[in-house]
From TrEMBL:
Belongs to the biotin--protein ligase family. GO terms for cellular component: cytoplasm. Its EC number is 6.3.4.15. Acts both as a biotin--[acetyl-CoA-carboxylase] ligase and a repressor. Residues 1-189 form the BPL/LPL catalytic domain. It comes from Gracilibacillus kekensis. It catalyses: biotin + L-lysyl-[protein] + ATP = N(6)-biotinyl-L-lysyl-[protein] + AMP + diphosphate + H(+). This is Bifunctional ligase/repressor BirA. Biotin binds at residues 45, 49-51, 116. The chain holds residues 74 to 325 of 325 of the full protein. One of its GO terms (biological process) is regulation of DNA-templated transcription. Transmembrane segments: none annotated. GO terms for molecular function: ATP binding; biotin--[biotin carboxyl-carrier protein] ligase activity; DNA binding; transferase activity.
Amino acid sequence: KWGLETEWLGKSIIFKEKIDSTQDVAHRLARKGAEHGTIIIADRQLSGRGRMERQWISDDSGGIWLSMILRPPIPPHQASQMTLFVAVTLVEALERATGLSIQIKWPNDLFINGKKITGILTEMQAELEAIQYLIIGFGINVNQNIDHFPEEIRDLVTSLQIVSGKEWNRTNLVQTILQEFEEAYQNYIDNGFELVKKKWIAHAYKLHEKIWIKTTQASFYATVQGISNEGALIVRNENGEEKLIYSAEINW
Ligand code: BTN
């Protein structure tokens, strides 16, 4: 049905019309030993989850709601690299599939024309010094029109249909994404994070533009320069000093 030409990613794909959250199903399956590369896709989610306990609206059909179970041979402290790797890979796959220009807003939102098109949620189960599994979930707004979104967020979000004026075949998009993902994953595991960092910079939202950052210690103007190996945002303040941002409120 999915017509995939992958070796391990999506060898097992579980599709549900309606589900609470693909993320939760993925956790259950992973705990029972589901293999590396298992994918869960839903047409609708009744309680889709976003980062920081936020809700992810996905109870209507129209988007791609997907979680994957990965068992990468990397230490737990490198898990944040995986999130950035996923963002970079999704950007490239979506740009190739749609011809649209897409940016990454740190840490892991994908933006088109300054509005959110995709969110990524990485959850890890680790024991001692090893990752048991990662659940990487992403939601891509595809065929929703603007009325689909609650009024409070209409200025902040968009979909492929809204920006391009046409409907997209979700199966084809999933195919492109998974095929590209498998190839890029191997490259990341074999060759490390350097290439991901370069690609991240090539797609960084507001690269070198002035933004306002508020951390628990300070607030200041800065410009985005790149990302570190730990997944921190590298910025330069107005005195020309580089700072690493691990978590902050940012006014873009
Ligand atoms: C965010 O931007 O806060 C992340 C959103 C992640 C949404 C996806 S949709 C598929 C998977 N299942 C969920 O419940 N959440 C993720």
